[in-house]
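Let's see one such:

===
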Amino acid sequence: MNQFIQNISTEFIKSKKTFAWWLVICGAAFMPLFISFVFLSKWKWLIPQPSHNPWDDFSEMSWKGTTFMYLPFFVVLLICLSLNIEHKNNTWKHIFTLPIPKEQ
């Protein structure tokens, strides 16, 4: 377990100054802000019935919008950015200097 924690901390060190962190933070906030804007701009259309919970509609719209439009592009971009960290110039030299044991 200690080796696993060291490997995770090494990955954080490698990806600390990349665009991937900003993408994760901004990407996680994009769809809820977009759906909130839709709810605020079309509030008359979205007035719930007396026995209906409006949070059900909000979560359903957020989930459908995220999975259909945003999630596939986000996953592909994050994978490409994380693989680019491994294959940039001189990255392998940097990996050998990180504080993880080299033996198995």
Notes: The mean pLDDT is 75.
